[in-house]
Amino acid sequence: MDKNETPPLLPTLPMHLMLSMGTWLASPFALASAKSALPHWKPGESPQKLLEAVGEEAKNRANELLAGISRYLETPYQRDVKAPLPVWERGNARLLDYGMGARGGNGPVTLFVPSLINRYYILDLEEKRSFLRFLAAQGAHPLVLDWGAPGRTEEKFGVEDYVTDVLLPAIDFLHETTGRKISLAGYCMGGVLALAAAQMEPKKVSSLSLFATPWDFHCKAFAPFVVEKSWQDTIASMIGADKFLPASVVQSLFYLTDPWVFEHKFRRFFGMDPQSRAARDFVALEHWVNDGIPMTAKVAQDCLIGWAQNNMLAAGKWGFANPAKVKIPTFIAIPKNDHVVPFDCAWPLAAMMKKATVI
C-alpha cells in the first residue's frame, strides 16, 4: 500500500455493533421476562437488584466499546515505513529484498511467503516492529513476496496458480542469482503455499519454516464454518458471481469462530494508556487487519469450499501440499491462542511431519 493511502477503517463495524449492542440491550429485557418464560427459574430474593446490575453492566460494556472505537478512529496514525525496492516482479507480485545493505549480507537467503488475503507488511509493521529488519540485522538475508492485489494477470488464478506462476518463478530467480538453495518461510495461509513449493522444488529449497499455518479446517473451533452441501453450493455460486471476493467478506467469516473478539479487543484498547507502546501497537495492527486483499473467485473457491468445507488439506486431497513428501529440515511454530488459526487447526500438520522442530 502506498504510504499516502489510508486503509478502510473497521469495514465490519456495523456487524459488530449490531451483535454487541443487540445482545446487551436485550439482556435486561430477557431477565425481566424470565419469570414468565422460565417459571421454574428463581432469581433470588432481589430480582430488581439483579435486573439493575445486568442493565448497568450492559451500559458499561457498551460505553467502553464505543469509547474504544472512537479513540481508535481519532488516533492519528500513518504507517511510514520505506519498503525496499523490488528486485523481481511478476504481474502484481513483487519480491522485496530486506537483506541488501544489511550487516553481514551473506547469511541464509530466506524467502518469506505471506497469506494471499493479508498484506505482507505484518512482517514489517514498523521500523522497530519488523521481523524482516530484525533478521537482516542479525546477518540473515530475508526477502518477502508481496503478492499485491489481484489484477488482470491474476484474476483467474487459483491457489495453485499463485504457487506455479509466481512463487516457483521467484524461487528460480533467487536460486539463479544467489547460486544457493533458498530457505522458505510461510506465514498463515502462506505456509501452505510454501509447503507446496518445497514439495515441488526439493533441489532448490534447503529448509522450511511454517508460522501459524492452517491445516485441519474441521477442528472444533471452525465448526461454524462447516455447512450442509446445499449451502456449500449456494456459497460457491455466490463466490463465482464476481471476479473478486472483497476482503471485508473474508474478514467477517473469521469472526464466526469467536464473534466477541472485536468487543473484547476494543474494550481492552479503551483501558490502555493512549501514549503507551501497547496502544500504538494496537492501532498499527488494526490498520493492517483492515487493509486486506480481495480474493479471486477461484482462490475463494479453493479456500472457502475446498479447504474449509471439504477439508481437502487434512484429507490429503489437495495434492500440491503433502507433508509426507517434504524431507528437508522443517521448523513449525503453532499458536496457542488464535481465533484465525486455532491450535487444533495447526497441530495436525506438525503431527504429520515427524522430523520437524515444533514450538
What does this structure look like?
The protein has 359 residues and is an alpha/beta fold. It has eleven helices and twelve strands. It has helices at 13-37, 47-74, 131-137, 159-178, 189-200, 229-239, 247-254, 261-270, 277-289, 297-307, 343-352, and strands at residues 86-90, 93-97, 109-113, 124-126, 129-130, 141-146, 182-187, 205-211, 244-245, 295-296, 330-333, 357-358. Helix 1 runs antiparallel to helix 2. The model has no long low-confidence stretch (mean pLDDT 87).
Task: Please give the structural blueprint.
Elements: H1 13-37, H2 47-74, E1 86-90, E2 93-97, E3 109-113, E4 124-126, E5 129-130, H3 131-137, E6 141-146, H4 159-178, E7 182-187, H5 189-200, E8 205-211, H6 229-239, E9 244-245, H7 247-254, H8 261-270, H9 277-289, E10 295-296, H10 297-307, E11 330-333, H11 343-352, E12 357-358
Parallel strand pairs: 3-6, 3-7, 7-8, 8-11, 11-12
Antiparallel strand pairs: 1-2, 2-6, 4-5, 9-10
Helix pairs in contact: 1-2, 2-8, 4-5, 6-10
Summed up, what is this model?
This protein has 359 residues and is α/β, with parallel strands linked by helices. The protein has 11 helices and 12 strands. It has an 8-stranded mixed beta sheet, with helices on both faces.
Tally of DSSP β-strands: 12
Distance between the termini: 32 Å
Largest sheet, described in full? 8 strands, mixed
What is the average per-residue confidence, as pLDDT, rounded to a whole number?
87
Task: Supply the number of helical segments.
Answer: 11
Radius of gyration, in Å, reads: 23 Å
Q: What percentage of the residues does DSSP assign to strands (E)? A: 5-15%
Major sheet: arrangement of strands: 1-2-6-3-7-8-11-12
Structural class: alpha/beta
What sequence of helices (H) and strands (E) makes up the elements?
HHEEEEEHEHEHEHEHHHEHEHE
Stretches where pLDDT is under 50 for at least 5 consecutive residues are: none
Helix content: 40-55%
Which of globular, elongated, flat, extended, rod-shaped describes the shape? globular
